[in-house]
Write a structure and sequence with these properties.
Number of domains: 3
CATH class of the largest domain: Alpha Beta
Helix content: 25-40%
Structural class: alpha/beta
Number of helices: 14
Number of strands: 19
Oligomer: single chain
Strand content: 15-25%
CATH topology of the largest domain: UDP-N-acetylmuramoyl-L-alanine:D-glutamate ligase
Largest sheet: 9 strands, mixed
Strand order of the largest sheet: 6-7-5-8-9-10-11-12-13
Distance between the termini: 60 Å
C-alpha cells in the first residue's frame, strides 16, 4: 500500500519511533514499498541492531521525512515528536495505517473500539469471543498482522497512548468503560487524559452507537455537558436502574434500551466481582448493537471466566484464598477489586504513575493489613497507616510470606490480595511477570517451600 501526501507525490522517507513490536510491524508493512525507512529508539542498546537505518537526530534534519510513525507510549513531549509538530510533519501510528488499509480494501467490516482506564481488555475479549474474532491493538494482537481478508467484525482495544496518535476513527460501536486518574506523568493532566479517551467517538455518525458507563463521574461530566458524540448514546450501570439504558443489579440484567425486558443471570465465579457485572452489561449492549439475540448474547458471555492477573483466584492454602490482581496498575483498579471483598490482607506498591493514592482511603475498612513493596511503599504507608496497619517489605516474597503467616496467626482466614495500584517497572518487566511471580510464590506455600 502506498501512502501519498497528495495525488502526485509518493512518500520516500519515513521515520519509525520505537523499535519494539509495533515499530517492527510498521516496517514489515512497508517492506515492498520503495521507501527509505529509518528508526529511532530511546534505548541505546538497540542502536547496533539498526545501525544502517538509525536516524542520527543530532546530525540529520527531520525535514527529510514526509511521515513519522510513533509507537504507543512515546509522549507528545518527546524531543522528536515536538520537533516534528514544529516542522508540520505528519505524525501517525500503526492504528491509522490499519484503518487506511481497511478503507482501501473497501470491505464491509463492522468496527468496534473500546477504551477505558480499567476493564477494556476483559470487555474486548468477551465481545471478540462472542463475535468469533481476535481482539486487536492494545490487547496484544498487532493490527498490521491481522488485516482481515474478508468482511468480518473487528474489535480494537485502544489505550490512551494509541488514541493520542489517531486523527480519525469512526467505529460502528465505541465503548468507554471508565475514566480514572491514570498515566498523568505521560499526559500531563487528568483533562488531557480524558480528552485522549473521548477521541474514540468524535467522528461517529447518527447511525452508530456510543456505550458509556453511567457510574463513572468523569464520563458523566464529559458527556452530559457536551455534544461529544453524534452517535446514539447508550448508558449502562451496575449501580442503578437506568430508564432507556441497561443495568445489571443483583442477579438481574435490565435491558430498557433494546428489548424492554429483564433477564435473570445465574451466578458464576466471574460475576461474583462487582466490576465484572459492569463488564458483562457493557459487552451485552455491544452485542445487541451487532443485532445479537439477547438470550444468545447472555449465553455466550456467561461462558467467559476472566483474564489472568485480573482478580484471579489462583487457589487456597489452609482455607486462605490467594487472588492475583497484578493488572491493577492504578488506584481505581485496586479500589474496584477491594469492592468485591469484605476483608483482605492487601499487597500493594510498585512504580509511580504520578497519581494520588488518597482515594484508597474510602476502601481502607476492607484492608485488615497492608504489605507494601516497591518505590511507592512509603507513600502508600503515609496514606493507609491511619486506617490499617501498614508494613513495608523488601520485596514481593517477603510480603506474601508475612501476609500469609498473619492470616494464619490471626485465625481470620482473610484472603491474600495482590492488587498493587501501581505500575510494575521498578521491579518487574511488566504486570504479567509480577503476577506470575506471585503465582510461583503461592505454589511454594502450597508445597511447603515458603514458611
Amino acid at each position: 500500500m502506498k501512502i501519498k501526501k497528495d495525488k502526485k507525490e509518493t512518500f520516500k522517507n519515513i521515520l519509525i519511533l520505537g523499535y519494539g513490536k509495533t515499530g517492527k510491524s510498521i516496517a514489515e508493512f512497508f517492506k515492498n514499498n520503495k521507501l527509505n525507512i529509518y528508526f529511532w529508539d530511546d534505548n541505546s542498546e538497540v542502536f547496533d541492531k539498526i545501525s544502517n537505518n538509525f536516524f542520527k537526530y543530532n546530525n540529520q534534519s527531520l525535514s527529510i521525512f514526509q511521515r513519522i510513525f510513533v509507537s504507543p507510549g512515546i509522549s507528545k513531549s518527546h524531543k522528536i515528536v515536538k520537533n516534528a509538530y514544529k516542522n508540520k510533519i505528519k505524525i501517525s501510528s500503526d492504528i491509522e495505517l490499519f484503518l487506511s488499509k481497511l478503507k482501501a480494501l473497501n470491505k464491509n467490516n463492522l468496527l468496534l473500539a473500546v477504551t477505558g482506564t480499567n476493564g477494556k481488555s476483559t470487555i474486548a475479549l468477551m465481545i471478540a469471543r462472542a463475535l468469533k474474532v481476535k481482539p486487536l491493538a492494545n490487547f496484544g494482537n498487532l493490527v498490521l498482522e491481522n488485516v482481515p481478508e474478508e468482511d468480518q467484525s473487528i474489535v480494537l482495544e485502544l489505550s490512551s497512548f494509541q488514541l493520542e496518535y489517531i486523527d480519525y476513527i469512526k467505529p460502528k460501536v465505541s465503548i468507554i468503560s471508565n475514566i480514572k486518574e491514570d498515566h498523568i506523568s505521560y499526559h500531563g493532566s487528568l483533562k488531557s487524559y480524558i480528552n485522549s479517551k473521548i477521541k474514540i467517538c468524535h467522528h461517529q455518525k447518527q447511525k452508530d452507537y456510543t456505550i458509556l458507563n453511567y457510574d463513572d463521574l468523569n464520563i458523566r461530566k464529559a458527556f452530559l455537558r457536551k455534544d461529544l458524540s453524534k452517535a446514539k448514546v447508550i448508558w449502562v450501570s451496575s449501580q442503578k436502574k437506568i430508564n432507556d439504558g441497561l443495568s445489571y443489579l443483583g442477579d438481574i440484567l435490565y435491558d430498557y434500551y433494546f428489548t424492554k425486558k429483564e433477564y435473570q443471570i445465574s451466578k458464576n465465579n466471574f460475576l461474583t466481582h462487582h466490576h465484572n457485572k459492569l463488564n458483562f452489561v457493557i459487552s451485552y449492549a455491544a452485542l445487541k448493537c451487532f443485532h445479537y439475540e439477547s438470550e444468545k448474547a447472555i449465553k455466550s458471555l456467561k461462558t467467559f471466566k476472566g483474564l489472568p492477573h485480573r482478580v484471579e483466584c489462583i487457589g487456597k492454602v489452609n482455607n486462605i484464598y490467594f487472588y492475583n490482581d497484578s493488572k491493577a496498575t492504578n488506584v481505581s483498579a485496586t479500589s474496584s477489586a477491594l469492592q468485591s471483598f469484605n476483608k483482605v490482607f492487601l499487597i500493594a506498591g510498585g512504580a509511580s504513575k504520578g497519581g494520588s493514592f488518597n482515594s484508597l482511603v474510602k476502601h481502607a475498612g476492607k484492608i485488615c493489613e497492608a504489605y507494601l513493596i516497591g518505590e511507592t511503599a512509603k507513600e502508600l504507608k503515609k496514606v493507609l497507616e491511619k486506617f490499617c496497619k501498614s508494613i513495608i517489605c523488601n520485596d514481593l516474597e517477603e510480603a506474601v510470606k508475612k501476609s500469609y503467616n498473619k492470616s494464619i496467626i490471626s485465625k481470620t482466614n482473610y484472603p491474600i490480595l495482590l492488587s498493587p495500584a501501581c505500575a510494575s517497572f521498578d521491579q518487574y518487566e511488566n504486570y504479567k511477570s509480577r503476577g506470575n511471580h506471585f503465582k510461583k510464590l503461592f505454589n511454594k506455600i502450597l508445597n511447603g517451600q515458603l514458611q
